[in-house]
Specification:
Radius of gyration: 26 Å
Shape: globular
Structural class: alpha/beta
Largest sheet: 9 strands, parallel
Strand content: 15-25%
Low-confidence stretches: 1-25, 575-634
Number of strands: 22
Helix content: 25-40%
Distance between the termini: 18 Å
Strand order of the largest sheet: 10-9-8-7-6-5-4-3-11
Number of helices: 14
Length: 634
């Protein structure tokens, strides 16, 4: 079963240039940071962004089934606020089902959907509102996932929704057309039907832009992987992807296209650094497609569903062992940033369970008794990593202290009165097979076939266990190199998933202030309702003398170090008759901890998400050139 899964990954998953080799396991890792080195505004991809989905059903019929419980929403708002990017799945079919009960329909619209949208917008955040679901009578079949057949009426429903939320209420919303249209569980239609669906929504948006003289962002296609299409497609022909088709279609029909979105479930933190058949990573390839069809190639690229994933949909690493997925989150975000992804929304706020369809998914940062949909929610260990992300500084040190390791990484940030280092130790349990699937694209057709035959046989397990002589394999030299690297990674995964790593942190800077250090930790000691409390570290740290400390990282752990500036003690004149004390004897007042994890750092107006509903992202075209051409596993 394991290798069937691997075969799927090789044919359909994304590929990556090999990451830098890990240091020798006996060596202590070293990370050195100069606080005076250049910094940039903290990229939005590092924000505590999340899809607000969960549960799948509620006892209260006015509560959208695609929205998490009030418990989880309130906990998130209290701890983290709503000043970032949040995705909400807006089910038009479910809303229409209540058409004969207007009071109930108004409640689901106003007391739930609009209430959370308003909270986000008022907080300076932005909503990606995913429009999906076909009301009865408007589709080809009586199914909410049916492609709309009555496009005229569907357009009017969508237009009225956008008019109310964006034009009249002026909420900060980006509109996304459908969810995972390449998956039959989410869209019953053909590629042409999806493109027509996008067209009628795009026309509605253009008309409202003209009527209200404002910008309304629109994008998609929210496919399950960036290279996927509704018709069968794989990584070897990305020019047949729905993303490519949508860019080309919008160019032909002069439709708005303000962001590109897709999903990316994997256990591989290097997913976005994959190589393609064109020897370019996906983000670069997509931006070249945008340029070719005369769009702004700097429009946001958004991975708006992602999570730790592996061979099974229900994984203990996402449930009782959620500290594993917690360590995966910063590792994946760091690689997204380096791969030039602009935004992400983690999926999702709450687990799914207790619903009529008997769908259970443990993807959330909150869970509950899955057999009782009305039970109270509780936080998993991975919820605390979002609290850590919320304590990162306003600026990022992008290229400082780089060291070569496959599993351990550091995200270093600063703010005016503190700086923070987030350190993670994530070991991909499927690292060897993910490595092969990332790199097999570098082989030619016959070489690739030979490797696939080995992977499908029992020889793959023998190779990774060291019982198969790689030199004896009848494959190309490049393939043997790949198998040797896979074996090396297999040994490293076995070793580092059981033993601690040490990393020496060295910090220097020309600051005259004293600091106090607070530490936050996520590890295997806690799986649910884990207390997020700082452990007081060294006090009176003077970076003029330099700072050095060796930190021990257990497997699948995350540590946040926050160095908080101590307030100055005002100088006083000496009492007559007494000698003035030397300047070095005056000590700043002590502070108890880093910024409170319960309080979101203040966000100034100019620091709000850069792209708002009233700001143009793509210039609409006046001339139409000739048309030319170039997993979801929940």
């Amino acid at each position: 079963m394991r290798y069937i899964f691997l075969l799927f990954f090789i044919i359909s998953a994304v590929f990556l240039n090999s990451p830098l080799l890990a240091q020798n396991s006996t060596e202590e890792l070293e990370y050195s940071l100069d606080l005076n080195s250049p910094a940039v505004a903290l990229p939005k991809v590092y924000g505590p962004n999340i899809d607000l989905s969960g549960r799948g059903v509620h006892r209260d019929i006015t509560m959208p089934r695609t929205l998490s419980s009030k418990d989880s929403l309130d906990n998130w708002q209290q701890d983290l606020g709503f000043a970032h990017l949040y995705r909400i799945q807006y089910n038009l079919w479910e809303i229409q089902q209540l058409a004969k009960d207007k009071p109930t329909q108004e409640k689901i619209l106003n007391d739930h959907y609009e209430e959370i949208i308003k909270k986000i917008s008022d907080s300076g955040g932005t909503v990606i509102l995913d429009l999906f679901g076909t009301p009865n009578g408007l589709g080809r079949v009586l199914d909410e996932n049916s492609a709309p057949h009555n496009l005229k009426d569907y357009k009017e429903i969508v237009k009225n929704t956008i008019r109310k939320l964006s034009c009249e209420k002026r909420y900060n919303i980006w509109y996304e057309v459908w969810n995972a249209p390449d998956q039959a569980d989410f869209f019953l239609g053909e590629r042409s039907e999806y493109l027509n669906l996008y067209r009628i929504v795009g026309e509605a948006v253009k008309e409202l832009r003209q009527e209200f003289k404002m910008h309304i962002p629109l994008g998609g296609p929210s496919v399950s992987s960036w290279f996927r299409n509704i018709e069968p497609n794989n990584i070897l022909s990305p020019e047949h992807s729905l993303i490519y088709e949508l860019i080309k279609y919008c160019y032909s029909y002069r439709l708005p296209l303000d962001f590109i979105s897709w999903h990316a479930y994997s256990s591989d933190p290097y997913e976005e650094k994959q190589s393609t058949i064109y020897n370019k990573p996906p983000a670069q390839l997509i931006r070249e497609w945008l340029s070719y069809f005369r769009f702004d190639n700097n429009i946001p690229l958004v991975i708006d569903e992602w999570n730790f994933d592996g061979p099974a949909n229900i994984l203990s690493e996402r449930g009782k062992n959620s500290y594993i997925s917690a360590s995966y989150i910063p590792s994946r975000m760091k690689n997204m940033y380096e791969a030039k992804i602009d935004y992400q929304t983690y999926f999702c706020l709450e687990d799914f369970g207790g619903n009529k369809a008997e769908v259970k998914r443990n993807l959330g940062v909150f869970s509950f008794d899955l057999s009782h949909s009305d039970s109270k929610s509780y936080a998993k260990a991975n919820y605390n990593v979002f609290k850590m992300l919320n304590l990162l500084g306003d600026e990022l040190f992008p290229g400082t202290g780089v060291f070569n390791d496959e599993f351990v990484g550091v995200i270093a940030t600063k703010s005016p009165d503190y700086f923070a280092l987030l350190i993670y130790n994530y070991i991909d349990p499927y690292g060897p097979t993910n490595y092969l699937s990332r790199n097999i694209v570098k082989l030619n057709g016959s070489e690739r076939k030979a490797v696939l035959n080995i992977i499908k046989s029992d020889r793959m397990e023998k190779i990774l266990s060291g019982n198969q002589d790689i030199a004896s394999l009848r494959v190309a030299p490049k393939a043997k190199t790949m198998f040797n690297r896979a074996l090396e990674l297999s040994n490293q995964v076995k070793k580092f998933s059981k033993e601690n790593r040490k990393i020496k942190i060295s910090i220097k800077g020309l600051f005259k202030d004293f600091y106090v250090l607070s530490k936050y930790t996520i590890d295997s000691n806690c799986s649910r309702d884990c207390q997020f409390k700082s452990i007081q570290g060294k006090d009176d740290i003077d970076f003029r003398q330099g700072y050095s400390e060796t930190i021990e990282l257990s497997p699948y752990s995350v540590q946040l170090l926050v160095f908080k500036k101590k307030p100055h003690v005002p100088e006083t004149s000496p009492v007559p008759g007494e000698e003035a004390r030397p300047e070095t004897a005056a000590q700043p007042e002590a502070v108890s901890s880093a910024p409170s994890p319960q309080k979101q750092p203040e966000i100034k107006s100019e620091e709000k998400p850069a792209i708002k509903a009233d700001m143009p992202l793509v210039e609409e075209k006046k001339e139409l050139p000739k048309e030319e051409k170039s997993g979801e596993n929940r």
